[in-house]
Amino acid sequence: MQRRHALYLAFAATLVALPASSQQGKNPPTNLYIDVLTHNMAGMPDMGGMMGGLGGFMARRMGGADTGKPTYPTTRAGGMTGQYLDIALHNSLKPGIEAADQIPGGLKLGKSLTLIPIDPSKPTEGSTPPGKIPDVTIKITEYWGCGASVRKGQPKVASFTIKGGNKSIDPNNPMGSMQGVDFQQSGSLSKTIPVQDRDIDLKPGWVYWPNRKHGKQVPNGARLAGDHRITGDGIPASMQFQVQENADFMPKLALRTQGEATDAIGLSWPMVERARGYHITGMHMQVLGENSYAMTLWSSAEVPGAGQDLHTNLSAGQLDKWLKQKVLLASTATSCTIPKGIFSGASNVEGQQATMPGMLSMTAYGPESWITYPPKPADPKQPWNPEWSVRLRARSSATAILGLDFGGMQQMDDGDGEDQQQQPQKKPGMKGLLKGILGG
């Protein structure tokens, strides 16, 4: 655990969420933010109803919370195959006061969703005693671009040595524990393409769904489109709006992989309706020795530096810019090839001990839309004092594990008729396996 702690801390990043300002130029007193995500864990059946978002599940388990309820935010990374919905509301007229979203029947979550503030109670102190940070060496090898062969000028390689000395890890503030730790670097990696953080984090004065009291898993086939009305103390009486089909859950991103880890790996997917572009990244990590690791990174971009940070909701301006620069794959793309052998360590090669299998992450970027009331007048000289606004964002994502074959399990779950008679006994077995991995 000490080794893992040091490695995670070395690559942890603190995300500071900045509330997205209204694109119309004036910020209304009441602002609602709705994100929807359709996630597909390639080759896996839909277990969202059993466990909810994997990331949220793990976080709640570590914190001792009720692991049966998804809690905000669930759309950042997904987890198990399924649909995810996050709602955040800030009403400056009465900050942090409970509110409700009267929802359409197609969402299959009842008549309304209750938004509440974060738990005001102080976090309990961890029982794990502080541990020493060992000296850790990490070698990172970076590749980019689709194609069967490694391109000229690649890879870029850098090694980092993290000297912890006598520094201790505070389990209640792990990032603070890294202050004063000595980082030494040899070689160089590409400059990371910066991504503006426009997510809404948990903070006082806001209310959220899903939450500790009203968290629910979004059912399969649920639709956000339809009439919504926000109610509560201090909420403008006019705050009702219609979500159009364009802002609804996107179709599943059916990512398929073909080829062994030692070969060029073919990736393919059907075009996703409403997707404006795609991005794929891969990562594999190996243990080289005591507190020594090797990490291989790859992205589908034509330029270096496009990493995991791009797997988020991007604005229309960012999409236009990065599609033009070929940072992102075009909306018409349906395939990509990972260069031969770059993830060869993801297979069980004698003498190599992998800490984790090779992982692929893919995003299909959907639309972002705004609703503001009253609408902005066409005449710029006419006074305009908007009462409220709604930001709607949609995205579809997929993850895949290189070298791990689950056969026809997902086809059985999707009900597409393919290989449904093959090894039906595996489906409950996989649920048991995942529960075992997660300690359930």
Structural description of this entry:
The chain is mainly beta. It has one domain (2-405). 12% of the residues lie in helices and 32% in strands. The protein has 6 helices and 20 strands. Strands 1, 2, 6, 7, 9, 10, 15, 16, 17, 19 and 20 form an 11-stranded mixed beta sheet that branches. Strands 4-3-11-12 form a 4-stranded antiparallel beta sheet, with no helix packed on it. It is globular. It starts with a helix and ends with a helix. Mean pLDDT is 79; it is low at 1-25, 48-66 and 405-440.
The fraction of residues assigned to DSSP E strands is 25-35%
Biggest β-sheet strands, sense, barrel: 11 strands, mixed
Helix content: 10-25%
Number of strands: 20
Which structural class fits the helix and strand makeup?
Answer: mainly beta
Q: Please, how many domains?
A: 1
- Could you list the spans in which at least 5 consecutive residues all have pLDDT below 50? 1-25, 48-66, 405-440
Q: Which whole number gives the mean pLDDT?
A: 79
Tally of contiguous helical segments: 6
Compute the CA-based radius of gyration.
23 Å
What is this entry, summarized?
With 440 residues, this protein is mostly beta strands. Helix content is 12%, strand content 32%. The chain has 6 helices and 20 strands.
Question: How does the SSE layout of this entry go?
Answer:
Blueprint: H1 2-11, E1 30-41, H2 48-51, H3 54-63, E2 82-91, E3 99-102, E4 112-115, E5 131-132, E6 136-144, E7 156-163, E8 168-169, E9 182-187, E10 206-209, E11 226-232, E12 240-243, E13 256-258, E14 265-268, E15 277-289, E16 292-299, H4 316-324, E17 329-330, E18 335-338, E19 353-373, E20 388-401, H5 409-414, H6 426-437
Parallel strand pairs: 1-20, 6-16
Antiparallel strand pairs: 1-2, 2-10, 3-4, 3-11, 5-8, 6-7, 7-9, 11-12, 13-14, 14-18, 15-16, 15-17, 15-19, 19-20
